[in-house]
């Protein structure tokens, strides 16, 4: 069973091409798709965006609320999904809440079973060891306690949020592991924890591997 993670720099659900690409990686033709909006406090706006993006798509969408929890046994519910999408927001708070409710363990189990893990912004950063976040103050800083399923670090919103680029370089110089930087609408696919390809729903979307020596462009395939 191939283990897969698809991480997006930002605005994942706003690009139908990315949704088609992601669902095309699922293990069944009509996949069960679960949305985790924990990072936004299960905000109704995020949930609406998710269901609107999947309206008319041949899948079974659902969401897992943790602030107003109704699912008793989270592990089998999460493991029954074919694709899991994690929304943006406060990454540090999301990770803490996941750990309290047992979601981290459920996600690891689902991943081992072949569920495709995905997400943008906080849902991009969380799968790595760490990365650049605004979780702690309005100023960008390093997060160092990600799930660590993928090695290294990540920086989403590389083109759309001022300061991401210099802060990522600064934090890597200060000891943050090197990693991948993704612009909005650009997604990286990992199979068995190895980078397979980077795709973009935008014709000008870019991705970089960033280390102490600087930025190194990664080839990007533009989706049709």
**Helix share, percent:** 25-40%
In DSSP terms (H or I, runs of 4 or more residues), the helix count works out at 7
Order the strands across the largest sheet as they lie in space: 3-2-4-5-1-10-11-14
Give me the count of strands.
14
CATH top level class name? Alpha Beta
Structure, explained:
The protein is of the alpha/beta class. The protein has a single domain (4-222), classed as 3-Layer(aba) Sandwich (Rossmann fold), CATH 3.40.50. It has helices spanning 16-23, 44-53, 74-79, 91-101, 103-113, 122-125, 164-173; strands spanning 4-8, 32-36, 60-63, 83-86, 116-120, 128-133, 141-143, 150-155, 179-182, 186-191, 194-200, 207-211, 214-217, 221-222. The protein has an 8-stranded mixed beta sheet with strand order 3-2-4-5-1-10-11-14, sandwiched between helices. The chain has a 6-stranded mixed beta sheet with strand order 7-6-8-9-12-13. It is globular and about 45 Å long. The mean pLDDT is 97.
Summarize this structure as a short list of keywords or feature phrases:
alpha/beta, single chain, 224 residues
Describe what is shown at a glance.
By secondary structure, this protein is an alpha/beta fold. Helices cover 27% and strands 29% of the residues. The chain is globular.
How is the topology of this model organized?
Elements: E1 4-8, H1 16-23, E2 32-36, H2 44-53, E3 60-63, H3 74-79, E4 83-86, H4 91-101, H5 103-113, E5 116-120, H6 122-125, E6 128-133, E7 141-143, E8 150-155, H7 164-173, E9 179-182, E10 186-191, E11 194-200, E12 207-211, E13 214-217, E14 221-222
Parallel strand pairs: 1-5, 2-3, 2-4, 4-5, 6-8, 8-9, 11-14
Antiparallel strand pairs: 1-10, 6-7, 9-12, 10-11, 12-13
